Protein 1
Amino acid sequence: MNGTAPGLVQRLQDSPQRLADSIRASALWLAVLDGPLDAREFHEVGLALTHDPEGVPLHDIAEALAADPMPKELPKLFRFLRGQRSPKRTVSLVDLYIRVAAADGRISQIERHALIFLSDLLAAPASLLPERFEALLGLEFEAPADLSDPAFFDAAETAARARAARQKAREADAGKAAQADAERRDALLVLGLKADATPIAIKAAWRKLSRQHHPDRQLQADDAAKAAAAERFDAVQKAWKRLQDDDDA
Amino acid sequence: MRDLYERLGLGFGADYGALRRAIAATKDRELGQRAKAVLLDADRRAAHDAVYLVARRLRDWRVELLMEDGAWAQALADSDLVRPDLPPEPLAKPAPKAAAQGRPWWRKLLKR
């Protein structure tokens, strides 16, 4: 397995389109870091740059990195990318990395660490990553959680227990299960989303609608519009709470 | 995120006994509490280690690529796993070896 990765780094170095292939490889590395490569992540990388038939095939890069996501030779690739940085390229690469990390619908803790690393690799200012994150996904960038703090696990375990209890109650009663499904569909409809919406899409829709209908934003509106906005705001918050309970968000 | 292993003076993958001894020997009460709650629970340790392994390697690469002064390294000033230049706080004296722990607990009481 480990024999594949040095071959990959060497192939990238020898590629006639070294920069484009190296960018693809760095994006695919981000995609495979937290688990098997998702088809949506692969698709996102494929869309990013036009492929030259003489370059290293995307599948070869993905296979090599899936076999060993952290090969010792990888810093050579990062050193090359760091040497090729420019302000314009930095923004487009940060955009690409954010899109790839979010393609599977969630941003994992490992991806947060990797995004910060890649942002520093490109010598981007600390503000660039949150700005682009907000612009592309409509979400606030959260720094990686402190997994050395037991409070992180306490909160996660409490939420998991509550979810398991709700799930058990639904399984025991078919009527409750049907009602829960209907409530979930309604909550997604309130946020203007389809049934297969990802957690990132749900959170982004909640943030957008909350801002839009927040009472503090209705200062110039008449009383009827204020009341309508308040009602809509409450509905959005209820839908968000409902989806959070199911770990959809 | 704190580097619990390094602060306890242990390597990644230390066994349960070594962890317990190091936690008992540490003078840093908060570090001991954190390590006990996170590393002595198998599920929590697995989740912690998956992230730790990647974050630790990225920290090593920061050194290799001369990225210690990165903007995020400054922003996350309290994270051992982002700031390679942050001095770790290992134990004042190393954790006792397994052999020294072999004595029954009541012998220690008799010695007093």
Protein 2
Amino acid sequence: MERLDKILTLDDAVRKFVRDRQSIAFAGMPLMRKPVVFAREILRQKRAGNLKVSDLLMAGGTASFGTALLVGAGIVESMIVQFIGFERAGLNYVIKKSIEEGVPRKVQVEDESNLTFNLRCLAGSLNLPFIPSISGVWGDLNLRGLGFPGAHEYRKYIHVRDPFGTGRKVALIQGLKPDLTVIQAPMADKDGNTFLLGAVGHDDLLSRAGRQVIVVTDHVVSQDLCRKYPNLVTIPSIGVDAVVPWRLSAWPTGCPGLYDPDIPHIKLFNGSALRNEFQDYLDWFVYSYKDEDDYLQMIGPEAERLTQTASSPLMEPFRKYLLKEKELEVVA
Amino acid sequence: MVGIGGKKELLRKFTSTEMMIVEASRFIRDNSTVFVGVGLSLLPSQLAQRTRTPNITQVFESGIIGASSTGRAPWGVDDTVLQANATAFCDLMSALGWMAMNNKFDVCFLGAAQVDKYGNINSTTIGNYYSPRTRLPGSGGAHDVATGGQKFVIMVRHDKSRLVENLDYRTSPGFIVGGTTRKELGLPGGGPCAIVTDLATLTPDPNTKEFILTKLHPCSTMQEVRENTGWDLKVSDNLEESLPPTPFELEVLRKELDTTGEFTGWRNSLLGSQIRP
């Protein structure tokens, strides 16, 4: 039976759901809706001695900022990737260093395309062991498969011909169910009904594939919004195990409707990796803040500029449904 | 054709990267649907919509459809500036699984770190895959668009380490080993229609599917192109010269799409006195 009111604090959610050798998928695209603050909190809880993690398996969801933090801190053993980098804002030097130089440790990589990864999640969400695909028929994507969980190598795509008579060649690819999927959202209600603004990317599929799903949301909305516009719920509460409110939770990636990606900060982060100053980055931007308000202070006046996003009209119809902090305490 | 001295003189008016973006944008017809790739391949459709072909529909793999090109250039296929004025939002599965595999795109743009003479692409690793010298972003949606797309333009900088005889890693399919091999494999899309570089445009021979030199940029020489190609490049009997960028195209590129010159290098490589964006 579904438990209602799933609001948890960020530190509680990390301690309750994250386990070592677990496969974790971060939803979002390279510059959009990455649950970065959740990755920060994993590192913070580990440092505080509240969490023992040393070998996480990152189960896809384009390797961007959050994944880079965990890889740079040396607590990722292996990962499925479709795309590593920040698009025009630069390559992902933290992850590059780990693959090319083994710094701070060599991460095992399994490559997928965006579609083959999505199909694996679709199979996972349908509880199917495998699914046929046209992508993967040619090329080196099937050089190495890492069986998750456990990261043992397995035979990857298997090519077969359509047994129904067309003779078309397809690749059979394995289904994937990440142990934990973390979604970043602009708004969700306390039960977990989640609204996404802008392109969906693969967030919907990842939420359905995950064995457990956490939504980190910038705002909590009144359930009136769901009852008024149920069509607009991208992820229904049935698929959500915890709702974690935290403002600017995707920073420095963007959240359509709320704020732009912080390109100067992404470049600063990349620079710190290039100059071997990644530990300093962690000290400044991961271990430095006490709580949410302190975190917002850390981002500082820059936040003002980021929230002047051209995409803010997407959010306009929903602003009146946002719950204030006081109302939140009442529901929590 | 202008002599070698005159050709290099042109590079005081525009950079070879600007030439590459402009030339790639010429594959876009008005009222068509364009699949937009990552990196430099984001720019041709942005340029085209702001100049020659205002009525195109751009599709981005994140699931953005119909975002019109206004304001600053997007940082990526998921940037908020594209989410601001789209006509529809869907998801990755729809863009790459449905649209790409069912011939919904008139032309697609893909970047590459390496490309071979049959238009197969590497965007994953340089060196051995298991212990790579250089790790690149990886497939993203490129493998899927190359598999399903009817027609795609590959954008790559022209040098021997990029236009190679053999790929270090086979990320996305072109014409496999030429001839009818792509067709025999049963891939739904028609394959690559051009390799546009900063020096020239290569197109596939209709029978062998080997890419040959068909268009020389006005700022480059045949010798330069052949010296910088990793295979024995054949030259078309009907070799043409591409037109230089128009002043309007350069103005849009510099004033709107790359104001800092970070991507096209226009601020650094042009003589300061001549910069009149």
Protein 3
Amino acid sequence: MSHLLREHAPITEEGWSRLDDEARERVIPALAARKLVDFEGPRGWTHSATDLGRTENVADAPEGIEAATRGVLPLVEARASFAVARPELADADRGAEDIDLDELDAAAVRIATAENVAVFGGWSTAGITGIAEATTHDHIALGEDCERYPRHVAKAVDALRAAGIDGPYGMALGPEAHTNVLETSQHGGYPLLEHLREILGGPLVWAPGVEGAVVLSVGGGHFLFESGQDLSIGYASHDAQSVQLYLEESFSFRVATPEAAVALTP
Amino acid sequence: MGTDQYHEPPEELPAATRTFARLCTSLTEEAEAIGWYEQRLALEPDRDARAIMRDAQGEEFKHFCMDLEFLLRRSPLWREIAEGILFQEGDIVEHGEEAEEEAVEGEAERGAPLSTGESLGIGGRGEGAQ
């Protein structure tokens, strides 16, 4: 049995299948970071740290000895708890298609958003420096006028090219900016989304948790996400009314090429 | 060829699984070519022709090994089993049974998912990009 303790939950195989399917359906659209950065793993629950390939000298080594400690980045464990009513699970077993999984849906968006925030904005207490924090380029203000987005994005792409960073380039767009892009057609009715995609040459992704946008190279090798345990549902406890569950993952993230991204502030 | 290499609807498969499937197909093709050259070499009497075929078969060996190494890198459980079987002296079947048992049990103990196991199996998915 794994540490997720799923066998202890009063949930049938069909019930687990419904929960996993629902979680997958809700979490994938919100997982923006994984669509744009390198993904390594999953390496399993016991994988605790990412090897950084660096060392730090140990000052008080015994005389005649040179000593160093290996540099590692610890994986962060992230967990989003939720409950499912037992009558709903029983109805699912009867074949009901409209069972109430609102708490699961909210947990899925919560954990995906936390992952996006860590990758793009950083999570200093977990040892993660985000892409927007690490970038060596000046931030570009997106502003209110959506018609000017192509100009800002082209400027960001130019900055990356000038720094010797190859494309294709992608963009993580915060929810507000994303809505603006979808709703906007430029002169002549040409969709803004299409125009931005042409400038980037790569994906444009809805990124809950991101404020403004981030333009980055998706050429690979610049932004490194390492998964320990990939997103999974585990069991915590239950009573007569409900089952307490959680969505959980462990991961680390590091920026290898700070100059490979430009942050666009709201 | 087209999409014959997929057993499931390709549009429903994650990009990483499609790549994995392509390399599995490539591995199969290289193994077939190795077998064909082996048969030709067994019958061909012309020394020059044999030299060319041997050289060509060497290319297929290389391609097969590169395909295999890629697949093993993407499949830790497969890699662990392979390590217990490949380049070992002794009884191949015995090594195979031992390697499978150790790798599967070891992975379960470490908490790593078997295949996608209990996880949602999401990985580095590119779906949803516009």
Protein 4
Amino acid sequence: MTDATESNVVPIAEIGGPRWHSTQSRRETMWGFVFIGPWLIGLVLLTAGPMIASLVLSLTDFDLVHPEAVRFVGLDNYVRMASDPNVIKSLLVTFRFAIIAIPLTTFASLGFALLLNSSKLVGRNIFRTLVYMPVQIPLVASTLVWIGFLNTQTGWLNHILGFLGLPGPDWINSETWIYPALALIGLWGIGNFMLINLAGLQSVPTELYEAARIDGAGAGTMFRRITIPLMSPILLYNLVISLVVTFQYFTQAYTMTNGRGDPNNATLFINLDLYREAFVFNRMGYAAAIAWLLFVIVMALTLGLFAFARKRVYYAGGDR
Amino acid sequence: MNGKHRTLGATKPRALGLLVAVALVVGACNASASPSSPASQAPAPSTAASASLAPAITPVPLPPNAPGPNGGTVVSWFVGLGAGGQPQQLAAEANFVDAFNKSQKDVYISLEIYNNNVAGSILKTQIAAGNAPDIIGPVGVEGLNLFRDQLLDLAPLIAKTGYSVPGVDPKLVDFFKLGENNATVGVPFATYPSFLYFNKDLFDEAKLPYPPTKVGELYQGKPWDMAALRELGMKLTVDKNGNDATSPSFDPNSVEQWGFDMQYADNSPLAETSLFGASSFLAADGKTAQIPDPVSIGEKWYNDGVWKDHFIPSASQINSDLLDKGNEFESGNLAMNESHSWFTCCIYPAAPAKPKIKQFGFAIAPSYNGTITAKLHADTFSLLKTTKVPDAAFKAMTALVGSGELLTLYGAFPANPAQQDAFFKATEANFPGVKLDWSVPQAMLAYPDIPNHQSWVPNYAKAKSAWQAFQNKYRSTAGTDIDAELATLKTTLQGIFDETAP
């Protein structure tokens, strides 16, 4: 009996052996591909395919209305961008806005998350819902509401400022004030970032705070030494997404100015310029080149962020 | 082995980081653009877009090169560039096509209708894909400009068939020589003369007589010209204390009622200054940019009207609640508005809102230096050069042009005088209790702006964006130096024109 039992036992060394490992690993790989298959097909057909097509298009002078006259122009479109005042202006506009909007969005969403994570806040769930609620409103509709809110003559904001004895600027028609106005509109919809930050805050182990408190650490020190390091991957994620969507900024600018980039091209964001070149001026080839410029800029900035964050972001599971 | 492991370990995070970065960029590039939300707001614009992209009526699939169900040559009719894409118009257009297809066996019209905001892009895509329609329309001058070199010269077909529109002023026939080398790209169908709309209640309140309704009539003993319009506009501009703009106590920071504007002029200096004379930014040589006198003089008049005399609203005033966020005349706070006959669309708000204007009237456009210019909008049908069946397409096109039902349906002022009465009755039915003097628009048809304010210039769409930017700047910025801005505009336009030079 003992012999028989012993003969049925598969040696542990055999289970973990190379052949078993290889079969198991192959099976896992296969199932992995099965599960990511739909995404892979989508990536190839709906993302990579159009990307390659747009790269080819960017080397031509393809015009929607004169398709028969398409010519291969090499890198002409890319060379032309360097001296195109609209491209230069739109890049400046986009960078200027990014400098205001990204830090504002990042800090405000973290600030709201900290407030809404506080155990001392009464009615936390109601406030969380209220902060998240604007995200549910269609962007075009909310922009139209904001246009009314920011109007110099009859907008509520200037009425409030007037009540406080402050002069209200022409938020929408001033080349200077349009950026704070757009940043303000952006702030209204920080619910998503706030939610991600909130999830991050709730994943910080409470023992760390308790231990720090025992060691005599104050709230500021705990925030600096515990919260920020443990939140750093979340903050990096929000920062990257924020960067990408800022460089993709379009809907609000289009809605506010009917796609014209008013006032005086101050809202001619790079994505709006791309849209106008492609669908208003019909220059698809040139627009494709602008799209690639945008991609390269965003890619470079994202890689820059990752490089900057390499030693500053703490991953609990180890190096990433 | 260990060394190898270390190397791999060092490369892994970098490769993984790169992969994550690419995935994030690509992923985020697919999402909706908003600095405030990464993904959840994506459905909003795309839902709106998909709703507006949905074709109103798609063409019935027919085998290529085969005759239509009635045995006739298939001709495709593309609607949406101008009027015709509104939901309430679809059934009538479909009924017209059905009746036409049943009435004869030579031509079969295949109808496709798109919403106006996407029709241009769809037509461009169809041209690029090599399946462009035969007929486009109704389409205005601007729409024709955008497809100018794709339009067929109708002159040979008109000569071949002996086609003419009875009773139409020859000036209107010439108006459609808008193609390359003055090719005739349309025939008179619907015209939209411009004139003054005035709010009678505001005149009564100010105890001022109504503006003239006959050409040559004086206003308060003076010629009815741009100087008279300015003076009248100031008297009708009122601040919150009830002072008008001619009063020393008038407060320009609290205006609640304005005297004049040219509403819905598409931010075009050429449209706005047409009262000072017809003009173009393109010199007679067809390649040089110019700032014509009417624009130069007219824009200073408007600039002063906004910032010095305060009887014309600024950009932020136009978009305020006081002027119904852009629908100035409908708000009841604008006394006079120069606009086209199609503007009857926009005097009363959509139900269930109640009209703020009780009584309004039509008046003659004021003259400048003794000349009246009443800018004209005109819709027509046009054939694309790519049509393989020009004769059949022209036959279908003339049937569309001759249809009284379509004219009434589009709310268009008929070019043919015999069809005008039906239009007047249909329009008056929308304004019970309001007596409209139709002799005003009829009279204004004799003073069209030639060159038209929407006339073609090289690189039209881009040039338009440049002059719109100028227009927006002076309307939103006090103290704009008009001469300097126009000089800059001229340089910009020349650069834009040169981009398309051979």
